[in-house]
Write a structure and sequence with these properties.
It is a single chain. This protein has twelve helices and 15 strands. It is of the alpha/beta class and 338 residues long. The mean pLDDT is 89.
């Protein structure tokens, strides 16, 4: 389990520590406060393991200059990941100097831990997926082929579902069950032939037998199906599932269903990271303040505070104010300035 990520000179993350909860971590803050940059760090860590040369991970995210913090000329981008398993702590350090400075990028394991903890750390980073779902991508036709994967925006979802029907029907059934639990009018998710040969598009069969294609489905249902597929595909012992603003297009009452499903997912060892602007979603974490991270930004960059480290949150909640309302009011920070 990853417990903390320390970041230096990465976009607005000039010098921050980002603690991660063992289950779900929720990041709240104003637009442009650094939440998406924190998810980009997860992508960088994943790519640093997948690429033989870690400098190629920087290229995959747009190049060094686009990632380096403003006014940090000559500095290196540094990311340190701390993981803990059964009391054993392991650290992975990624140092990325400017390509023109001479020194090569470095990947360093601290001489602590053991083979099992190293394996879990690498599995968590390598198994990280970050999703920012798009209605247009979910509606798009997908070419059916072996090895199809769900894109960060949900692209190729129909191909993934089509493959699962033959290769992993129990997982396919679990996706249907998750969707039915929230959209009770839906009997099952289907895939239909697309306009181009060899392509499929997403669809849904309702309980009365009528089948609708993605073009006739609501944005909210499409997004919920995308979230269900992303969540069920992460049923692995290790890894991080990160989702940008899962509340988009979804009725507030369905958010409780979504959180329940994500909590079940964490029982397998997967960590979940969410960004949100929804007071309703945030209310679900009233009793787990250690799961909530407040992002603020000033002229020096992004600052991250864990809600449980605030002295005033418990006192305010005892007054009966919902956590979402408390955050929205600005008492806790992490809201746009006026």
């Amino acid at each position: 389990m990853i417990t903390e990520i320390e970041v230096k000179n990465f976009k607005t993350l000039r010098d921050v520590r980002i603690p991660l909860a063992p289950g779900i971590t929720v990041m709240v803050g104003a637009n442009n406060s650094g939440k998406s940059n924190a998810l980009a760090v997860l992508k960088l860590l994943r790519e640093s393991l997948r690429q033989k040369d870690p400098a190629l991970a920087v290229d995959a995210l747009g190049g060094f200059e686009s990632l380096l913090s403003r006014n940090a000329t000559g500095s290196a981008i540094e990311v340190t990941v701390t993981a803990e398993s059964e009391g054993v702590r392991t650290r992975y350090k990624l140092k990325l100097p400017h390509p023109m400075s001479g020194p090569k990028a470095e990947k360093v394991l601290e001489p602590t831990g053991d083979g099992v903890s190293y394996f879990q750390l690498f599995s968590s980073m390598h198994g990280t997926t970050v999703h920012d779902l798009s209605v247009a991508a979910l509606r798009a036709p997908a070419l059916v082929q072996q090895g199809a994967t769900l894109g960060p925006d949900g692209r190729d979802i129909a191909a993934v579902l089509d493959n699962l029907a033959g290769e992993n029907p129990s997982l396919r059934d679990a996706i249907d069950e998750m969707v039915r639990g929230s959209a009770r009018e839906v009997k099952r998710i289907v895939t239909r032939s697309g306009a181009e040969p060899g392509t499929k598009v997403l669809g849904a069969e309702e309980k009365d037998g009528r089948v609708y294609g993605a073009e006739d489905m609501s944005d909210g249902l499409l997004l919920f199906i995308g979230l269900a597929v992303a969540a069920q595909l992460k049923r692995t012992p290790f890894g991080i599932l990160a989702i940008e603003e899962p509340e988009r297009g979804i009725h507030p009452r369905r958010l409780r269903d979504l959180i329940d499903n994500l909590l079940r997912l964490t029982k397998s060892g997967t960590q979940v990271v969410l960004t949100t602007h929804s007071p309703t979603l945030l209310d679900e974490f009233r009793d787990t303040p250690e799961s909530v991270l407040i992002f603020d930004r000033d002229d020096t960059g992004t600052h991250v505070t864990r809600l449980s480290d605030r002295k005033d949150w418990a006192e305010e909640l005892q007054k009966g104010v919902p956590l979402g309302d408390l955050w929205y009011s600005g008492v806790l920070g992490g809201v746009p300035g006026r």
